[in-house]
Structure to design on (264 residues):
């Protein structure tokens, strides 16, 4: 290699090295991807799972008569209804599945009487919390009628409803305030090396952009229809179908556990 080529190579290496050291693209892109991943995880954790609420409803609202049974089912169904109302506003799939409020009635998440009550309240803002309010009222009425036997159980049921509502509020907040994109943070005139770095990290950016809208229709987005169907089916099963159906208490054969443990 001639000295002239060595000199050109050295100057080129220094030029690239200087811009690589001063470029803030890696920092900005890393921050953006980290924020998107954290956002996706928070949305998943707060999409709302009915099991905890349903278990307390099953254990704290006593009685085998039709009124007690309908009370348990209605409390759980109203929680699922509130989830549907939130997801209709933030998920494309759920909006297409339930394009109107009447479609929620047809799907069994809401009764005609509840729809009339819901629409009778004129409010310029969201009303997803209204079914939660109905559930709280049902719990308080159950306490007055003796279906909930003490105030501690009443408080715990209301706390579970409150926790479920807070999860839905988190989804609403994240949808209301979107994550700002990083593109406006770059200068209008970009240095050459920043553009080259961007080409190297464009795949990283695409991953983040795919995660940015967690409630879209892509295959990798959260399947909100699954969560809705699962919550309603699981919740009603816990408070109705499977309630008080347990195996009989029987002692296991003597030393059966220790003998099976010794085999391993």
């Amino acid at each position: 290699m001639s000295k002239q080529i060595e000199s050109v190579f050295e100057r080129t290496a220094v030029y690239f090295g200087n811009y690589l050291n001063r470029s803030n693209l890696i920092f900005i892109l890393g921050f953006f991807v980290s924020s998107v991943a954290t956002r996706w995880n928070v949305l998943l954790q707060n999409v709302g799972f009915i099991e905890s609420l349903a278990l307390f409803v099953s254990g704290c609202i006593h009685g085998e008569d039709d009124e007690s049974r309908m009370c348990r089912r209605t409390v759980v169904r109203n929680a699922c209804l509130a989830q549907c109302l939130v997801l209709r506003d933030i998920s494309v799939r759920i909006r297409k599945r339930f394009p109107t409020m009447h479609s929620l009635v047809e799907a069994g998440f809401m009764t005609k009487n509840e729809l009339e009550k819901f629409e009778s309240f004129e409010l310029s803002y969201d009303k997803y919390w209204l079914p939660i309010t109905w559930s709280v009222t049902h719990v308080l009425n159950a306490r007055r009628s003796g279906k909930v036997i003490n105030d501690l159980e009443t408080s715990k049921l209301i706390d579970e409803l409150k926790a479920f509502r807070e999860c839905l509020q988190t989804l609403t907040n994240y949808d209301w305030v979107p994550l700002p994109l990083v593109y406006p943070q770059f200068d209008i005139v970009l240095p050459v090396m920043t553009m080259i770095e961007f080409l190297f990290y464009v795949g990283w950016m695409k991953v983040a952009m795919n995660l940015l809208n967690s409630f879209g229709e892509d295959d990798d987005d959260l399947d909100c229809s699954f969560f809705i169907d699962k919550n309603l089916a699981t919740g009603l099963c816990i408070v109705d179908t499977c309630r008080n159906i347990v195996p009989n208490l029987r002692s296991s054969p003597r030393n059966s556990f220790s003998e099976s443990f010794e085999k391993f």
Summary: Confidence is low (pLDDT under 50) at residues 183-190. The longest helix spans residues 151-176. The two ends are 68 Å apart (CA to CA). The chain has 13 helices and no strands.
